[in-house]
Amino acid sequence: MSSFWGKTAKEIAIIVALALVLGLGSNLMRSDGLSFATLERAESAARARVVGLNEALELYRDKGAVFLDARDRDFFELERIRGALSLPFNGFEKAFPGLKERLKNARAIVTYCDDEHCPLGEKLAAKLSGMGFPGVVAFGGGLEEWRSANGPLEGEEATR
Amino acid sequence: MSARALSLDSPKLVLAARVALGAIFIAASADKLIHPGAFAEVIKNYRLLPGLLINPAAVTLPWLELILGLSLVFGPGARGAGLLALLLMGAFAGALGFNLARGLDVACGCFRASASSSPATLLTLGRDVLFLMLSLFVFLGLKRSHQHPGRSLEKGT
Hints:
The complex is a heterodimer of chains A (160) and B (157).
Chain A: H1 2-29, H2 38-45, E1 49-51, H3 53-61, E2 66-69, H4 73-78, E3 80-81, E4 85-86, H5 92-104, E5 109-112, H6 120-130, E6 136-139, H7 142-148, E7 153-154
Parallel strand pairs in A: 1-6, 2-4, 2-5, 5-6
Antiparallel strand pairs in A: 3-7
Chain B: H1 3-6, H2 11-34, H3 36-46, H4 51-74, H5 78-101, H6 122-147, H7 153-156
Helix pairs in contact in B: 2-4, 2-6, 3-4, 4-5, 5-6
């Protein structure tokens, strides 16, 4: 009886070892092999850097950053940071192709949403960073903080 | 055909079940061997493995299925392969059942490595349970033939 389990365990060990060697080995050989660190990197990229008002204003005035409005298009039409482009997080695939070239040439990219409670700005920044765009940050305070600091606005309902 | 050949512990029946189970595992491995990235996405959607283990599992599991499938069909290491098949099918059915119970719409990833294929249903779980029973039948058959070598296929028919 014990010899059965002993032999079975030995066979299992050989099969598992073979699978590990062939699986990991073939993954190393193939050009589209998976990286075992990919997920870790993706997770850290998912936390895009969030900047405050001062840094956002500096990026706006001095560095010619492209500002991206992550909200839906309707809200963008009503009021937005002056010069911002619309790239709704919920509609990314549709809007992105038209902005791709512009973003490729951007020296810095700042995303924003309504206020600190809206996660779309950070999500958009994380997505763009993950796609390989350098220098993408999210302005955490969003349109509300921008408005209260008298930052330049435009749109159908913009007061400044 | 004798009554013996029809009984559930007939060595011929065990051999046929063993070959069928092996063929199932080989068929299941093919698409995943070709598309490990898509299979990793399926594993991730199951939300059971920690992130660091997803990619290593996606590249080794299809090979494990292929090797144990070949072993079941052609013989060498069949007992180990039989027990591994039983354990794997138990894990697959358990993972699928757990996700169905908590309401997650996951693609099965059983025979196709695509996360966007239609989500697993109770029918998929039923199929897994059938395969699990087949694995149990094969393993018990292999165990029996070890305990009673006189009833192996060569001598027992």
